[in-house]
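Notebook entry, structure prediction.
Reason for the run: the old model in the group folder had no record of what sequence produced it. Starting over properly, with the input documented here first.
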Amino acid sequence: MNLLQLKHFNKLAETEHYGKTAKMLDISQSALSNSISRLEKELNVSLFKREGRNVRLTKCGLEFNSYLTNSLRSLDEAVECTKKYRNG
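New structure, fully documented this time:
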């Protein structure tokens, strides 16, 4: 798994729609789908379940997203802090 897959997952968890998420991330829907599939395969769990045109997080997906959201927030804060050093 890589950071890009995790960001894709987090955004899809937020929007619950592949098409909207792909557009927001400026990637194709198939690229997003492949990214999520690879993540699920590596974790060996289903993170989403399809509901018509939308998706919903599974119980496992909800818990994973809870931890991931906090981790991504911390990472963003670390990047911003580091940029402050660069800018004086």
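Summary: Strands lie at 48-51, 54-57.
The old model has been moved to the deprecated folder.
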